[in-house]
């Protein structure tokens, strides 16, 4: 063999094994199927071995292709380690003791202060800059490089970013005590909730996205508020019910200024850290993610 095989083609080969088809492999690695097909043809010519069985129903691995795939998997893994390691080495060392964090409001208000206190205890010389946005804007900050690390509440991780679950949360339906639902014992149905105007967070917030996803349609919003506190105060004033993080309303429910209303919806969600660049984090970014996972 006159030259080394293309690692990108080996990655496609491994993806064929993992996803069951060339089309699935192309989607997984983020390339067009015709390009993936050409890469496989070049790889077969380079290796001198037929790797794919092609038919009108798609492409599957040949027996030789299955064997080559197992060897290729180790090469692809090692290549990722090389690229990620080099990217980490290339990071500006002058920023090794500083961290820019963008966090969704629920995380920023109720969880991040505890995580940052633990980080500061371990690294008293560290500098952390925090901005607070909704989940959509947090993902944008990280994707565009204006934040090193983000924390979001969206039901699905954003495309183009690495992510890790750091904590779990639950949304609950709350109403003012004088509301008709204030003494309700039977759960509010999905149809009832979908047809009832609510006090909501703005579009793009993780809370709003989770609720829309659970309802299977956009929520009917009576008022849109830019923060959990504004929604909570509006509900306490008697405007309408709302769905908010349990973290944001537990104190008000305990004080009797809000009532938690039972609902049939499962509104549990995962809170995620998101970052760009190498898949493997290091330094303050890695430590803050680990702290969040331990304490979240």
Automatic annotation (TrEMBL):
<keyword id="KW-0238">DNA-binding</keyword>
<dbReference type="Pfam" id="PF03466">
    <property type="entry name" value="LysR_substrate"/>
</dbReference>
<comment type="similarity">
    <text>Belongs to the LysR transcriptional regulatory family.</text>
</comment>
<dbReference type="Pfam" id="PF00126">
    <property type="entry name" value="HTH_1"/>
</dbReference>
<dbReference type="GO" id="GO:0003700">
    <property type="term" value="F:DNA-binding transcription factor activity"/>
</dbReference>
<dbReference type="InterPro" id="IPR036388">
    <property type="entry name" value="WH-like_DNA-bd_sf"/>
</dbReference>
<feature type="domain" description="HTH lysR-type">
    <location>
        <begin position="5"/>
        <end position="62"/>
    </location>
</feature>
<keyword id="KW-0805">Transcription regulation</keyword>
<protein>
    <submittedName>
        <fullName>LysR family transcriptional regulator</fullName>
    </submittedName>
</protein>
<dbReference type="InterPro" id="IPR000847">
    <property type="entry name" value="LysR_HTH_N"/>
</dbReference>
<dbReference type="InterPro" id="IPR036390">
    <property type="entry name" value="WH_DNA-bd_sf"/>
</dbReference>
<dbReference type="InterPro" id="IPR005119">
    <property type="entry name" value="LysR_subst-bd"/>
</dbReference>
<dbReference type="GO" id="GO:0000976">
    <property type="term" value="F:transcription cis-regulatory region binding"/>
</dbReference>
<keyword id="KW-0804">Transcription</keyword>
């Amino acid at each position: 063999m006159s030259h080394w095989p293309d690692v990108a083609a080996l990655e496609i080969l491994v993806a064929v094994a993992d996803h069951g088809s060339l089309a699935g492999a192309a989607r997984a690695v983020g390339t067009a199927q015709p390009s993936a097909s050409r890469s496989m043809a070049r790889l077969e010519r380079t290796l001198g071995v037929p790797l794919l069985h092609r038919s009108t129903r798609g492409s599957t691995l040949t027996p030789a292709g299955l064997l080559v795939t197992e060897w290729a998997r180790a090469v692809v893994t090692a290549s990722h380690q090389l690229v990620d390691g080099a990217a980490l080495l290339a990071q500006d060392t002058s920023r090794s003791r500083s961290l820019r964090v963008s966090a969704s409001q629920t995380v920023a208000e109720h969880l991040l202060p505890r995580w940052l206190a633990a980080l500061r205890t371990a690294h008293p010389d560290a500098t952390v800059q925090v901005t607070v946005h909704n989940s959509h804007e947090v993902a944008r900050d990280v994707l565009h490089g204006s934040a090193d690390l983000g924390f979001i509440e969206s039901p699905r991780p954003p495309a183009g970013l690495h992510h890790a679950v750091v904590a779990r949360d639950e949304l609950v339906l709350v109403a003012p005590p004088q509301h008709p639902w204030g003494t309700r014992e039977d759960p509010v149905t999905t149809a009832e909730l979908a047809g009832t105007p609510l006090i909501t967070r703005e579009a793009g917030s993780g809370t709003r996205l989770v609720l829309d996803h659970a309802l299977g349609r956009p929520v009917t919003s009576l008022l849109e508020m830019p923060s959990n506190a504004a929604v909570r105060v509006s509900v306490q004033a008697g405007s309408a019910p709302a769905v908010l993080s349990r973290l944001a309303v537990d104190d008000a429910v305990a004080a009797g200024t809000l009532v938690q209303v039972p609902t049939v919806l499962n509104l549990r969600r995962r809170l995620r850290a998101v970052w760009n660049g190498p898949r493997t984090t290091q330094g303050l970014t890695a430590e803050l993610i680990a702290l969040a996972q331990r304490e979240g």
